[in-house]
Structure of Acyltransferase 3 domain-containing protein:
Amino acid sequence: MNAPKPYYPALTGLRAVAAYLVFFCHNAPDRIDWRWLPMQSWLSRFMEEWGVGVSIFFVLSGFLIATRYQVQATPTRAWWGTYLRNRFARIYPLYALLTLLAFGVAAWHTPWASAAPGTGQKMALQLVLNLTLLRGFFEQHIFSGVMQGWSLTAEECFYLAAPMLLIGARANAWRLLLYAAGLLGTGFLLVGVGQLVKNVPVLGSGGFISSVPFMLGYTFFGRCAEFLAGMGLALYVTRRPPPAASCSQPGPFTLLGVGWIIVGTALTATLRSTLPFSEMTKYHFCLPIYNFVLPVGIVLLLYGLVYERSWLRSVLETRLFDLLGRSSYAFYLLHLGFISSCISVFMIGHPPIKLVELIIVSIIVYWWIEEPLRKRIAQRSR
């Protein structure tokens, strides 16, 4: 019989916080009147940096997958089949439904009589790349369909790699550093492949891993440090189990992690506000902070939420935040796109109010669509 898997309710609540950070990153900077505040330009830029929520998702994924599977991961066909089916059930059904909706709406609104030649073929190619989760490798197609779904390509790559990484790392966690170097090296090699195939139809025209900044910003190979940082923390926690919640003590790591994330985000906002370069160059300049500095703060925060007693942990462990966390994936997929646009047009689109509206919709979608589909698919693996 398998031992019960550890569950950290505060980390479920943290998923909701991460999703809401991404929402404000995409919705607030251009929709909120900052003129009455000092440093209004910087504050708007600071909120644009709240895309750090995606980094929190990636570190959390590394931690949760390693916590769940580090002991039982085995290189057998039966285990892999069950593992992949469970991961598929968790991520894919809702994403596929929303992708089909997005392309259906796009096809409905396309003026086919006056459309440019090849429009239909391009849309069909993008649909295939979206449904196969390959779109995240192609710069020209990465934001097609459900725009924010680009991160699922990195997520699925991690799911495929995680068991083998765990089998090696559970014997020696320091191997994670070697894996990070190997994955980054593979990413640089794939950039070279992208240059070699740039004149090949589909691959080249789609921008297959077309540059180093693209690889570092959008692929699992460039973002691997975030996932591996979460895995490293999970391996540490397994060897040093935290005390029961009632016995945990206050400590500095929760506050240190929150402070680290805020300072790191403020630093990137300041750099992108003041550096005398193009927006793209400033983004490239900040990539090392996004990929390697901010994950340190996220790990510190997770450590604090697991080991320490704090007001933040108490809030995130409430039943409300448990529900918000469980429905956060639906929220993430809904916060941009057709349904989000409908809310803006037919309801109230001001960001704080729209946040509440989207939360309600995402909970309904979680209860009635996402979770029933997940259970039905997962039951077939038993």
The mean pLDDT is 91.
